[in-house]
Design a protein that fits this description.
By secondary structure, the protein is of the alpha/beta class. It is 41% helix and 14% strand. Strands 1-2-3-4-5 form a five-stranded parallel β-sheet.
Length: 207
């Protein structure tokens, strides 16, 4: 959709999206349901990689994310995936650090009325350095929210995860582990090995 039509389309798209959310939450028992908002377009707008049709881009992004989060019924588990894209397993831009994801979460958490149960932030395979994780010092994590760091990569396995976890532990007291961008767009045959890697990392490194 061309940029000049985004403003006209946005409310209709949101209406349809929330209608789907309503049907899902009316059908699936709330205790068995998790809704995760995939915040990729918005992170691209925040980073200046993608143009937004609204002014005051950062404020506009948070305004929209608050509406989306508060639309999820309170008993349902809510997650926020602060995503840098997954195009052939590559980001649209490699994050310089976790600074922007921390900023988005902090501003969002300060305004959302319902619990955010988890937030996921990506960790590129080459970033086991202190500078990447240092912004976590300023993370204002709500008590009910679990931080998940996407630091598990099949290419360097347990050793790479260990390096990234050691760097992260200097700046985050508690966190869970994940892949950088979920399991999507991966060949089905590698998923069992990837699940075993998660279990090994959790047992060997986070115990």
């Amino acid at each position: 959709v061309v940029l000049e039509n985004h403003g006209a389309l946005e409310p209709e798209y949101r209406r349809a999206l929330f209608a789907d959310l309503g049907r899902i939450s009316a059908t699936v028992p709330h205790r068995e349901l998790t809704i995760q908002w995939d915040v990729s377009t918005e992170m691209a707008q925040w980073e200046g990689v993608r143009e937004a049709h609204f002014e005051n881009v950062h404020d506009g992004i948070i305004d929209r994310l608050v509406v989306h989060c508060d639309q999820v019924p309170a008993p349902v588990e809510l997650g926020v995936h602060l995503c840098y894209g997954n195009f052939n397993l590559r980001h649209w831009r490699e994050p310089e650090s976790l600074a922007n994801t921390v900023a988005v979460y902090n501003r969002l958490a300060a305004r959302v009325a319902r619990p955010i149960h988890y937030v996921h932030m990506p960790v590129p395979i080459g970033r086991g350095d202190d500078a990447y994780f240092a912004p976590l010092d300023g993370l204002e994590l709500r008590p009910e929210t679990t931080l998940y760091l996407g630091l598990v990569h099949e290419k360097d396995g347990i050793d790479g995860a260990r390096r990234r976890i050691a760097a992260a532990k200097k700046h985050a007291a508690r966190f869970g582990i994940a892949t950088e961008c979920g399991f999507g767009e991966r060949p089905a045959e590698i998923v069992p090995d990837l699940l075993r890697l998660h279990a090994q990392v959790a047992e060997d490194v986070l115990a």
